[in-house]
Amino acid sequence: MVTQILRIPDISLTWSEWHNWSNIEIDCRSRSGVFIPHNPGVYEARLSGEEERLTIGATSNLRYRVRECLVKGKGPHSAGKRIRELEFIEQIEVRWAETDRPRCAEEELHRQHRAQFGHLPKYTNH
């Protein structure tokens, strides 16, 4: 039997402001649209002002995953589909943070959410 120890460095996340779901739908080239980077990162959605998250996700392209899949439903996103069907969209806020290790960051964010609330975010399946 071989034992291997993994030493995982800290991940520092600089979060965007919380943005209203409806403003994310608007193209960022308009004055009221929100710019989302094409870089890898993590994102969270919540009811406005609430601490508990509706979903926490990771992606290799924040703009595509957040705007096109989560918010607009133009790509696969099971949590986004359920949020659009079951929640009052005007009360949803989304934020994101860029990181070159999105899966590790997502795993830790899920762990922290579970520790604080006793369960994963409402629309997270794994």
Keywords:
126 residues; single chain; GIY-YIG endonuclease; alpha+beta; four-stranded antiparallel beta sheet
What does this entry look like structurally?
With 126 residues, the protein is α+β, with helices and mostly antiparallel strands. The protein has a single domain, classed as GIY-YIG endonuclease (3-Layer(aba) Sandwich). Strands 1-4-2-3 form a 4-stranded antiparallel beta sheet, with helices on both faces. A hairpin with a 5-residue loop joins β2 and β3. The two termini are 30 Å apart.
List the helices and strands and how they pair.
Elements: E1 19-20, H1 21-25, E2 41-47, E3 53-59, H2 62-71, H3 78-86, E4 92-98, H4 102-117
Antiparallel strand pairs: 1-4, 2-3, 2-4
